[in-house]
Amino acid sequence: MSNGAWSTPAQKSLRASELGPIAAFDADSTPGFDGDKSDGEALLTKRGEHFADLQELLYANGRSGDDRSVLLVLQGMDTAGKGGIVRHVGGLVDPQGLAITGFGKPTPEELSHDFLWRIRNALPAGGRIGIFDRSHYEDVLPVRVHNLVPQSEWEARYTVINDFERDLVDQGTTVVKCALVVSKDEQKARLAERLDRPDKYWKFNPGDIDERAYWDAYLEAYQAVFDRTDTDYAPWHIIPANRKWFSRLAICELLITALENLDLSWPPADFDVEEQKKRLAASE
Amino acid sequence: MSNGAWSTPAQKSLRASELGPIAAFDADSTPGFDGDKSDGEALLTKRGEHFADLQELLYANGRSGDDRSVLLVLQGMDTAGKGGIVRHVGGLVDPQGLAITGFGKPTPEELSHDFLWRIRNALPAGGRIGIFDRSHYEDVLPVRVHNLVPQSEWEARYTVINDFERDLVDQGTTVVKCALVVSKDEQKARLAERLDRPDKYWKFNPGDIDERAYWDAYLEAYQAVFDRTDTDYAPWHIIPANRKWFSRLAICELLITALENLDLSWPPADFDVEEQKKRLAASE
Q: Where do the Polyphosphate kinase-2-related domain residues begin and end (chains A, B) (predicted)?
């Protein structure tokens, strides 16, 4: 029955611990949502306005000294649509209130520090929604798959990450972690499109084909991430991403829930309203 | 005759040197544009899509090593709508491609450096559109009006600014400077609205009323800015801002022109497309 609504809230239906092993995950599914593409797009338009209102409320509170923030952590294999989430979900709100950071291969300077150094430098200020396009999880995903550091080193990181996120949450940042999952066939189709369209060449990297050979190792590495870092204070959500309309709708919904849970209201005036009205009326 | 089109291109009709003295400026006017609010809004929707396409092209080139960028410098008195420009014009494009910085009262650290230090730190990387909400011009506007530094010091800054912007442009940044101008009455109405609506209290600052007493001194300071820093390489535009639909349309148009002048095309593949197609087809 298609009615364009969530039968189960996204933060429950997409929670990593609610879903089965990632190796068996259906990237075409729409867990918790009853509706098709046109239902989903219509709902996103509507919910996008609510999202924008909540973001303005967060920003207003930040400007008034509230240091709470929201951090969306996006992970996913190549072509899973992380950039599309930044554009189409981030694009729903005032860009002034966003702090977007993409994490690529670490630079020599970044490598000379511990792996969380560049992450700490990019954390959102109070009142902002931070978006990480890739994140500290790169240090237990490609780094693990290719053993870019010794196993003893990456093994230790899961605990370091949990401790780091615990601190973050304690300091007032709501952490929303989303892993976008495409199927191997869908990835192939999306890479083929990048090779067919000259306006998409810039998104193609020959290394993306090489990485396909490590697909199963990546699934294992993702499973370890979910098993070891899906905590109640910083939960992981698995976002089926073969249908872009769904992944956008789902992540918008997760951000709305995060913002609603902050239970924000408009900051009270820190001046005497009536007095200021009189002063203004008296000014030329 | 209202037909919803520009009779004179915005970069000409709004150029500071084309317009008369700022003290006589009509903040309700729509120089160069023949049309009313609904015409303007319809045109902004259409031009916004073109703007987004051009921004993606700039971003793609940036990712491919082109270090050119665009910098929008926004100045204007309180309530002139700078934040609305960031939200409604910046919001037309992929937020990933924006680098937005607001410059408030300088912090002690900023004051311990020369006045351009914080500006240099916020310049857009290649492929980005930077937006400065206030800028280095604060150092010759409130600073001049209130003599926050000795006159000999602020007097010297016009030349320093011109040299700085010359360097910026030489390094590949297109600089688009816009001064948003509201009338004194319109400002009063907008301040009154902030005092009438609890969801707007956070935008109100009692100091904004104090600044109204310096209105004429500000106009003088703006005039000096136009007289001394409206250069062909980094031109000033005066944006009448009593009608928000017009200021948004005008600035979108100025950014489109800046991007079109870069004469961008999609970056060519830096790999052999046919070879990669074969590799992809052969991958599982």
A: 36-261
How many CB atoms lie under 10 A from the CB of residue A108?
6
ipTM greater than 0.85, yes or no? yes
Class of the domain covering B5-282: alpha beta
Residues of chain B found within 8 Å of residue A99, distances taken between Cβ atoms: none
CA B102 to chain centre: 11
Question: Which chain A residues touch B204 with a CB distance below 8 Å?
Answer: 269, 271, 276
Q: pLDDT (tens digit, 9 = 90+) per residue, B34-59?
A: 999 999 999 999 999 999 999 999 99
User: Which regions of B94-230 does DSSP assign to beta strands (E)?
Assistant: 98-102, 129-133, 173-181
**pLDDT per position as a tens digit, A216-228:** 999 999 999 999 9
Q: Which residue(s) pair with A76 in the sheet?
A: A180
Contact status of A271 with chain B (Cβ, < 8 Å): yes
- The reply to whether A78 touches chain B by the CB within 8 Å rule is no
DSSP A133-149: ES-GGGGGTHHHHTTSS
Q: What is the pLDDT of residues B63-73, one digit of tens each?
A: 999 999 999 99
Residues near A283 by beta carbon (within 8 Å), at least 6 away in sequence: B188, B209, B212, B213
CB contact under 8 A, B96 and A133: yes
